[in-house]
Amino acid sequence: xxYILTIAGGIILxxxxxxxxxxxxxxxxYSTNYKKGVIRGQSIITDKxxxxxxxxxxxxxxxxxxxxxxxxxxxxxxxxxxxxLQTNDILKPFYTNSxxxxxxxxxxxxxxxxxELSEAPFMTLEDLLTIFxxxxxxxxxxELCLSTGLPVRVLxxxxxxxxxxxxxxxxxxxxxxxxxxxxxxxxxxxxxSKSDAFLELKDINHDLQEIYAKEMKGKTGYx
Length: 223
What we know:
Layout: H1 2-41, H2 47-56, E1 61-62, H3 64-71, H4 75-87, E2 91-95, E3 101-105, H5 125-134, H6 141-148, H7 152-164, E4 168-174, E5 180-187, H8 202-216
Antiparallel strand pairs: 1-3, 2-3, 4-5
Helix pairs in contact: 1-4, 3-4, 7-8
């Protein structure tokens, strides 16, 4: 009897391990396809253009089928893009009784965003400080995306670099359960109070150029 139970336990454990391995493989495949879908879709419509589409709607809302119809993305690609922008604190979801999801911008577009920035294809330190000044020294990915036209995935890498260099810090607000409600960036000292003195730091801009080149090479990178 003990022998039979041991064999049965081994079979059950084997099945559990196989299922876990399958879940890991499926999760990895989904993550890869998700990243490729978001990246590939940038050649059809940029993140900035998606945000502008939202702003043009009478109710400022879109679902994945509406975005697909307006943008040329497939419905699957549109859904991936909306999820990507929600994950990065730009869109807010609403749900119908039948569990269909509609999205709207988390923050209204209230200021002009066509700023006079550098001609570099990446965001320079000067660009960053110009954007901070324009938005009263508090910015989100929405403002960065609209002002620079860069994909959010590139901006994420650049802002991580600025954080590492001690130029900016990210602040978060949470609900009573500890879930993140909102994220924003502020300048750290001395950039906060003496931003004009740091407009020409060439080494930082060189490193940002390398980050941009790495992100855009072969249209691969982080989401």
